[in-house]
Specification:
Length: about 625
């Protein structure tokens, strides 16, 4: 059978045929940014109040007897069928077109329903999927075909899926079907739609045109850019360029590809985009190993030291610990990275002088390296036995990824939050540790361990109930949304039982571990502790405490967020007063965190914070 580009028997009005004509007209085989519009896009109907569940139920009722009829085995095609002419398949495809026309469903409904359909005869279902993708004329019918091939596709389907991925409304469906068949092809289709930056477009165009020799240089240009790429973009770039192979093929001593691979691994592992894409990357273990093998090729610089340390932290307690490593493989990579960082020329970097004057970011990074240097190489995390079941680690990531300070919780060596939630990182130590929320008492207490970055009301949060039961502490009664698709399979969270003495000791150790903090953050923690001990400092002014921490962009600036209601003296009742938000920037006067926190608490005790605005402290206000 000839390649799909050479076929002439396909219906001229099929979506596949139209996409193929458009792609053939592109110079150099490039993939247009954002793809093509469908020739007859599905109507954007106003919401009618019909629930997701009702729409899926209606679609299930339509598709089940057509996709998986009880007598499917009697007319199924053989393995030699082309996929479009098996007996009865073409008639079924026509019926699907007719039945879907009046449903008013969306592609998301199709994916959800087809993923759960029981398939009595997989051969027939595969043939139907091929018929719909290759000859389908309506977007929803083609989506059914793509969803079937996401479950049953084979390598021969890859060219068709790549072509259909040219339509922007079908790209997610095509990529989902391509991912298990041809990861680099899926990544290239995804990047073709999502790549915006000129240097990234250049890389995508070179890959599409088969210009393999130019890929390393173009990849380096992508990674040289100051602002980091998004987590999924990093994953797709690594897959599209076959990064592990590039590392193995790089010349000895060639540092550029090694540093680039490390940066992509760090971005793939980031939870700043809600989920760690590294868990959806099928070649992640191979890539970590290729990077660690070549780590010694990096020259000793502060940037490279921070990079190796970041990868080690990820392997130690980050989402990547959940990958399928096999016995001893992850530990071997940590040993290799520790060996590189333990060489005299590398050890001299954090022990040297301060960063250049006028470079606060460089100084933040140097201080972070000094504080964090040993953390990923402690083997206590995930130890065996009752005392090692639970490990709590306050973790600060490289300052180039601002704002990432989280309380990593490992149970039996597995990071809990990325495994159970996958929609954001764990809460900061100030929320979980300084507040005593993780302490166990006889009275059960529900604790929010993590919240989606968009807020709980949008994408949910992870809650657990903690209680003491005799000589044990129990974590149970979990509440969470379903984890994002394509990461880890959803499973019921068990009830965890810890020996109470070991649990109390671990919580006390974590609460008293202040080695992760820096001066401005320590100042913030001391101010928050003072307000917990003396709530009257704010209630006397009719002021409420908000978040207290450090500036997202300036780690040396302590911020105190406060709120209050407009006074009835303003001509409104207290219940009608707008809520005023105050942001107090506590100045760094060169004194110790203890001195600064004491001065801030004294000022709160003696001066109404609603009047702050001078005296060296920044202030802003807004209403809600």
């Amino acid at each position: 059978m000839s390649a799909p580009e050479e076929r002439t028997a396909l219906p001229p009005d099929s979506l596949y045929s139209r996409a193929l004509r458009l792609l053939r007209a592109e110079p150099g085989g490039r993939i247009p940014e954002r793809g093509y519009a469908l020739p007859d896009p599905p109507e954007r109907r106003p919401r009618t109040g019909t629930s997701w569940e009702s729409s899926c139920a209606a679609l299930t009722a339509v598709l089940t007897p057509l996709v998986s009829p009880a007598d499917a085995g009697s007319d199924a095609g053989s393995d030699s069928d082309t996929g479009t002419d098996a007996p009865g398949v073409a008639r079924t495809a026509e019926e699907i077109h007719l039945r879907l026309a009046g449903l008013g469903i969306r592609g998301g409904h199709v994916r959800s329903v087809v993923a759960r359909l029981p398939l009595v005869d997989e051969g027939r279902a595969r043939a139907l999927g091929r018929c719909l993708t290759r000859t389908g004329t309506s977007p929803m019918a083609v989506c059914v075909g793509l969803a079937l091939l996401a479950r049953l596709g084979e390598p021969e389907d890859v060219p068709y899926l790549r072509v259909l991925g040219g339509f922007r409304d079908l790209v997610d469906h095509a990529v989902q079907a391509l991912d298990p068949l041809d990861g680099p092809a899926a990544a290239l289709v995804w990047l073709g739609h999502h790549a915006r930056r000129p240097e990234l477009r250049g890389l995508v165009d070179a890959l599409a045109a088969g210009e393999e020799s130019s890929v390393p240089g173009l990849l380096e240009a992508v990674l040289r850019r100051g602002s980091p790429v998004r987590s999924e973009t990093a994953r797709r770039v690594a897959e599209a360029v076959r990064l592990a192979d590039l590392l193995r093929e790089a010349r000895p001593g060639e540092a550029g590809p090694v540093a680039g691979a490390g940066r992509l691994l760090c971005r793939m592992s980031s939870v700043n985009d809600y989920r760690a894409e590294v868990l959806a990357c099928p070649v992640a273990v191979d890539l970590f190993e290729a990077f660690a093998v070549r780590a010694a090729d990096l020259p000793p610089t502060l940037d490279h030291h921070a990079l190796l340390l970041s990868v080690a932290l990820e392997l130690h307690s980050g989402p990547s610990r959940l990958l399928k490593w096999g016995p001893g493989r992850r530990e071997a990579l940590l040993d290799r990275l520790e060996s590189v960082l333990g060489r005299p020329d590398w050890r001299a970097l954090p022990a040297g002088d301060s960063a250049e004057s006028g470079d606060p970011a460089g100084q933040w990074r140097l201080d972070w390296v000094r504080r964090t240097a040993r953390q990923p190489f402690r083997r206590a995390a995930g130890g065996t036995g009752p005392a090692g079941r639970l490990r709590i680690e306050a973790t600060v990531l490289d300052p180039v990824d601002p704002g990432i300070v989280e309380t990593r919780i490992l149970i039996d060596g597995r990071p809990l939050v990325p495994a159970a939630f996958g929609r954001g990182g764990a809460h900061a130590p100030e929320y979980l540790l300084d507040s005593g929320r993780l302490r166990a008492t006889d009275e059960p207490r529900e604790v929010q361990l993590a919240e989606a970055y968009c807020t709980e009301g949008c994408c949910g949060a992870l809650h657990v109930t903690i209680r003491r039961d005799g000589d044990h502490v129990i974590w149970s009664d979990w509440r969470r949304p379903p984890p994002p698709s394509s990461l880890l399979p959803a499973r019921e969270l068990p009830e965890y039982r810890f020996e109470a003495a070991a649990y109390d000791a671990e919580i006390a150790r974590a609460e008293n571990d202040h080695g992760w903090t820096w001066p401005a953050r320590k100042t913030a923690r001391l101010i928050a502790a003072g307000l917990r001990d003396r709530p009257d400092l704010l209630t006397r002014w009719n002021v409420e405490q908000g978040w207290i921490g450090t500036d997202f962009r300036d780690r040396d600036r302590t911020i105190v967020n406060l709120a209050h209601r407009a006074s009835p003296s303003d001509g409104r009742g207290a219940e009608d007063g707008s809520r005023q938000h105050l942001v107090w920037h506590v100045p760094d006067d060169g004194t110790s965190p203890e001195h600064r926190a004491a001065a801030a608490l004294h000022r709160l005790a003696t001066v109404d914070p609603r009047t702050y605005g001078g005296g060296g402290a920044g202030r802003s206000a807004r209403s809600s």
